[in-house]
Amino acid sequence: MQRRNYTLVTEFKLTGLTDIPELQILLFVMFIAVYAITLVGNSSVIALIRLCPQLQTPMYFFLSHLSFLDICYSSSVTPRLLTDLLKEKKLISYAGCFTQLYLYAAFGTTECYLLAVMAYDRYVAICSPLLYLVIMSLRKRVYLIAVSYAAGFTNALIHTVAASRLSFCGPNTINHFYCDGPPMFVLSCSDVSLNELLIFVCVGFNLISTMTTILLSYTCILATILKISSSKSRQKTFSTCSSHLIVIIIFFGGFFIMYGRPSSRQTHNLDKVVSLVYIVVTPMLNPIIYSMRNTEVRNAFRKFLGRSVFQHM
Question: How far apart are CA 163 and CA 86, in angstroms?
């Protein structure tokens, strides 16, 4: 049998978002502003929850972790995207590419499970209000957070180890602005059927388990709200869930578009647009959504600002 001479890939080239220099500068300015808002907004939410006594409840405990994950999730891709917008050649090392793949998958999956945990938290708060603080004890909260991180990082490890076993011996250009599994599989000269199966099984399991938790929680919440006689009380009760529902729709909507479509219908430009919204824009929106629609957060922020001004007078 004739042997083929292959040159193993030691680095990858990302196509990025565009090759037009003027557009790259415009996108750099836009995305660095978005990233700055993401860092400041989520850091402010974390600090506010830690410093304000009225926000020391289970719901805000989980919200602070959501903000932390948003920072980590966005930071796994956005800084590299920003530097690549200023470069002609968008090269990333083999190790750097797999590190980005691991961190992106780890933080993204962890956030997926955390949103399910937050749905369960809302279920307990609305359906069992008198037992809320007993059920959602600090020990229970830490356990749920630990499970979310364990699920996220285990999922990422499975995909990264499986991808690292592939051989890349031909073209090294990834048609994306970051290292994601499916665009990398196209470049492999190995059999990727196991990797595709793992994505199907793991993504399917993650979606089914988290969406089932969310749907069951909100079904019970809706049933409880409909039993409330006063329309004002119903509206007030539902308002405690509205921010979380908006975040879930944005997050899982992007997740499904990215990984739930048949491969024959995928287009690279659509993948890039959805990824931008999913990875860069959504982490910026979450603290804005929770701040604008949550009276307790707004009041705590006003009190904190007033106290800070008074102390500096």
Answer: 29
